[in-house]
Specification:
single chain; 12 strands; five-stranded antiparallel β-sheet; alpha+beta
Length: 431
């Protein structure tokens, strides 16, 4: 014990000379308090990080639940064998922002991928293994045994109509879903295959991946098992290539974050190519094949690009269908416009007389995207282009009103901006 006390004394007080200690008798106590305060703060930060990680990152629970259902024959999928038998689909880094939506980077067939699954039902039972049977009942409950193929197709069509609207192209989407469900390619859809694809369709992002699969601006869907699905990994998951870590964002002023973004951003011609891709994506989801879609959180961390500087939408969970927004707004009580907000920034007007939300979003996607691109494109822009670019971005940002009543104006502004940018990089190595 004496040796331990001597060691502690040396660690805590050796940096101070005896002469200094005699002149400042209170410094021992102050120094000790500072050391212990440092230890306490460090321990608290480590504990909070661990508790936050253990709460958000439950990939082992997700894998346990999915493989349990697969072994029981309740679910099926193109990646089930690799996940549960061969163990060649590997979970790596946790990227989850919510405990009910598990997101991991992973490795599959020697390629980096993103693995996503939901464990909401299991978490309701405190992640107890006993919650697995509950998930059998709650999540994989449709279709029921005895459902015919024609009845299942009718289920799918009605589901798509309620979520995407009565679009003439839905029959083709139903055929695509049936083909995806038929994992063993035997021309039939088993009950396990049908339950799996139905559970996946309840996930907004998966539904949007299917709806926008023909476009080159979303991640490719690589496979699924139950309601777990795998997509390609987008190399750069921020518009600037690298984003400020979430825990630092509240601490850094907006001006400092802007400077950091500009410092790590790609060269201006490459940013131009990425921006043109983003504008094309806005064009695609405005009266697209399967209806209208709205970006309801316009953030640099929700959009990214690949190694060729082609734009990619990173987070489709922040995109909503027109039907979803209308369903949210219908009959909703409000006092002001902010009460009529779906997601973060899909806002409709509030009828002050009726105290109810109107059904149309006020600000179109293009206006929000131009606001995002203003700093992104103006920094480092060629001097001869800067004034005209700034003018067009300002015009774009003022777009408002019902998109259905301003379709021509919307298209004109978008095409003018795309043309201005494309002329500057066309016939160069950046195009």
């Amino acid at each position: 014990m004496r040796r331990i006390r001597r060691l502690v004394h040396l660690v805590l007080f050796c940096p101070l000379s005896k002469g200094l200690q005699s002149r400042l008798p209170g410094i021992k106590v102050k120094y000790l308090l500072v050391v212990w305060l440092g230890i306490f703060v460090g321990s608290w930060v480590a504990y909070m990080h661990y508790s936050s990680y253990s709460e958000l990152c439950r990939g082992h629970v997700c894998r346990m639940i999915i493989c349990d259902q697969y072994k029981k024959g309740i679910i099926s999928g193109s990646t089930c064998k690799e996940l549960c038998e061969e163990h060649s689909l590997l979970f790596q880094r946790c990227l989850s922002s919510s405990p009910t939506q598990q997101v991991y980077s992973g490795l599959w067939k020697e390629k980096e991928v993103i693995i996503k699954c939901g464990i909401e039902e299991a978490l309701k039972a405190d992640s107890n293994p006993a919650s697995v049977p509950r998930r059998d009942v709650v999540l994989f409950d449709k279709p029921t045994r005895g459902t015919s193929m024609d009845e299942f197709k009718e289920m799918l069509l009605n589901f798509l109509k309620s979520n995407l609207g009565d679009q003439p192209s839905l029959a083709a989407l139903v055929s695509q879903i049936i083909t995806m469900a038929d994992v063993n390619r035997d021309g039939k859809v088993s009950l396990a295959e049908a339950k799996s694809i139905w559970a996946l369709l309840q996930l907004n992002e998966f539904l949007l991946l299917l709806s926008l699969h023909e476009k080159e601006h979303t991640a490719k869907l690589l496979g699924h098992c139950g309601d777990l699905y795998v997509t390609e990994k987008i190399p750069h998951s921020s518009l600037y290539g690298t984003d400020v870590p979430p825990f630092l964002q509240p601490l850094l002023p907006a001006a400092v974050q802007r400077v950091l973004h500009q410092w790590v951003a790609p060269a201006w011609p490459r940013r131009t190519k990425i921006s043109i891709g983003l504008l094309e994506f806005v064009e695609e989801i405005f009266h697209g094949t399967y209806g209208n879609f709205y970006i309801c959180e316009t953030s640099v961390s929700n959009v990214g690009y690949n190694e060729k500087y082609d734009f990619k939408m990173v987070n489709l969970r922040k995109v909503a269908t027109e039907m979803a927004i209308r369903g949210f707004l219908k009959g909703r009580h409000c006092e002001q416009n902010v009460d009529c907000t779906y997601g973060k920034d899909c806002t409709a007007t509030c009828d002050k007389l009726l105290k109810q939300c109107k059904g149309d979003v006020v600000q179109p996607n293009l206006a929000k995207v131009c606001g995002l691109l203003q700093d992104y494109l103006l920094y480092g822009a060629p001097p001869e282009l800067k004034d005209e670019l700034q003018k067009q971005l300002r015009t774009c940002m003022t777009l408002s009103g019902l998109a259905s009543q301003m379709e021509v104006h919307h298209s004109l502004v978008l095409n003018n901006l795309k043309t201005l940018l494309w002329k500057k990089i066309s016939n160069t190595k950046y195009s």
